[in-house]
Here is the input.
Amino acid sequence: MTIARIDHVNISTTDLAATIGFYRDMLGLTPTPPPGMDPALNSWMVDDAGNALIHVNTREAGEEPGPINHVAFACTGYDDYLSRLRGAGHELREIDMRDIAGVRQIFVLSPEGARVELNFREPPAS
Here is the structure.
């Protein structure tokens, strides 16, 4: 059960085109349609190696408290994290996107309310 690295940061915006333009033109990232999502509302900003460093999604003004929607970590040990979080009484949400994006996810809020996404690109434990 480990966290290997930050997987991506999700940015919510009321102006998708301007946000994509900033990360493309100022930081050199390439906008890419995310798998299974509407590219008119979402974009992944990828580096030269194809890593989706920033996920950009649209939001209505006032919908969220700020532009950082969540931080995601690349992890191993899905069942162990699930057990630990549930055992501590955390509310969580699980999403299985292995058929679309090759990943299972656990979402949980930290004590101060930050949304944390744990990504697992490993086969399920047998």
Remarks:
- The radius of gyration is 15 Å.
- The beta strands are 2-13, 30-32, 42-46, 52-58, 68-76, 92-96, 104-109, 115-120.
- The chain has one domain: 2-120.
- Residues 2-120 form a domain with the 2,3-Dihydroxybiphenyl 1,2-Dioxygenase; domain 1 fold (CATH 3.10.180.10).
